[in-house]
Amino acid sequence: MSVDHEVPRLRATTRPLAATPELVDLADPQRPLLWLRDDRGCVGVGEALRLSFSGAERFREAAERWRRIAAAAEVDDPVRLPGTGLVALGTFAFADDSAAESVLIVPSLLVARHRDAWWVTEVTRLDAPDPGPEGPPRDPGLPAAAPAGHWEGTSFGIPSTAAAGAGQGVTEYLDGVREASRRIEHGAAEKIVLARRVAGAVAADSDLRVPLGRLAERYLDCWTFAVDGLVGASPETLIRATGGAASARVLAGTRGRHPEDPQRDARARDELLTSAKEQHEHAFAVQSVVTALSPHVRELRTSEEPFALRLPNVWHLATDLGAALAEHVSSLELAGALHPTAAVAGTPTAAAVAAIRELEPFDRGRYSGAVGWIDAAGDGEWAIALRCAQLGDADPASGMRPVVASAGGGIVAGSDPEHELGETVSKLRPITEAFAP
């Protein structure tokens, strides 16, 4: 077999693990690499390889580059489950012209579990100046957890131009919703998703395992993630592809929870289920996913009716989809085909994205893009990067790292600006609470 000398050559060694560590505890306190949902997930330590992408072809280029790297890799994997062997974690920007990098990161060490199965994978560079001794690779060991570190937390407010791009107050957001509604009424689009953002700052030595632990403990039905400074807990699976099967969860339509008042909480759920406006918005989102998946599947199944998904902070209208793939296509290629869904952009896609570019006074960065993982077979899980915040580099003068959180809502005919603002407040709550002192 010919060797492509432009492709990094990696060796991945996976071994079963008898220990059952707390994955969050093993994460790097300042640079965590984590993907976790209840009894499934992984934590990465160190970086064996980092790949960066940008532009309109970022998903396609990443999928092709990863395919070549996986083909050239030496993989010793007796466990043979999705997520064993060679694995990269990644995060991808929302917009084609975003200044934010889209990245795939191969950790030097990965500790993972799937229900009762645990494993550890070590990755080394065979093309490094000193790749190590030849012969059978050593069995990877379990890394030691760093001791608990510093945490003061932060409160969030309207971002400054220096911290996060153009600021956007409440009045400006409401004006944007009204303008989006006006355009929809005049036929420019059927749905436009508008986001707003808030900002804070944490000390450079802050232990980010604190907010990650809070998210993982409270949002068991969400993917808690940390990839390249993007930290959050997303309820929406963009795509999961393993062994020729794919699944997705579509969320669109929201009501704030009232767990302190069960009767009021039940009314909020029932209002969501019976709202013509919310059902209409949800139908847009489901159809966008069905349309994008159709060229790649033999059969496609969906929930008969949307159901109410209960999270600690909100009720969501949800639909689950399942499909059998018609051809070998990687999870990253499917993520690229699906992005951006109507749930985060609108309908029609091109018109909605153009409106977002005009009406949102900031670059979304990785918010509402894709975050997840892919293995050497192309299997993987990708979520929409929601309920999240992006941490920046520390300011040498202040010793603080900026933190920017974003949330949005779908504007359709008849949307009420005050309701849409309240929806963003509810959606920001997971992050504002996780990063609190």
Record the strand order, biggest sheet.
Answer: 5-1-9-8-3-2-11-12-21-22-10-18
Q: Segments where pLDDT lies below 50 for 5+ residues?
A: 1-5, 161-166
Number of domains: 1
Distance between the termini: 56 Å
Layout of SSEs?
Layout: E1 10-16, H1 23-26, E2 33-37, E3 40-45, E4 49-53, H2 58-72, E5 74-76, E6 87-92, E7 102-106, E8 109-114, E9 117-125, H3 161-164, H4 170-185, E10 191-203, H5 209-218, E11 223-227, E12 230-234, E13 237-242, E14 245-256, H6 262-274, H7 276-293, E15 297-302, E16 307-310, E17 314-325, H8 331-338, E18 346-347, H9 349-359, E19 370-375, E20 380-384, E21 388-391, E22 400-411, H10 417-434
Parallel strand pairs: 1-5
Antiparallel strand pairs: 1-9, 2-3, 2-11, 3-8, 4-7, 6-7, 6-19, 8-9, 10-18, 10-22, 11-12, 12-21, 13-14, 13-20, 14-17, 15-17, 16-17, 19-20, 21-22
Helix pairs in contact: 2-8, 4-10, 5-10
List key phrases describing it.
437 residues, alpha+beta, Anthranilate synthase, 12-stranded mixed β-sheet, 10-stranded antiparallel β-sheet, 33% strand, disordered N terminus
Descriptive report:
The protein is an alpha+beta fold and 437 residues long. It has one domain: Anthranilate synthase. Helix content is 27%, strand content 33%. It is built from ten helices and 22 strands. The strands form two sheets. The chain has a twelve-stranded mixed beta sheet with strand order 5-1-9-8-3-2-11-12-21-22-10-18, with helices on both faces. Strand 21 and strand 22 form a beta hairpin. Helix 2 packs antiparallel against helix 8, helix 4 packs across helix 10 and helix 5 crosses helix 10. The longest helix is centred in the middle third of the chain and has 18 residues. The chain is globular. The N terminus is likely disordered.
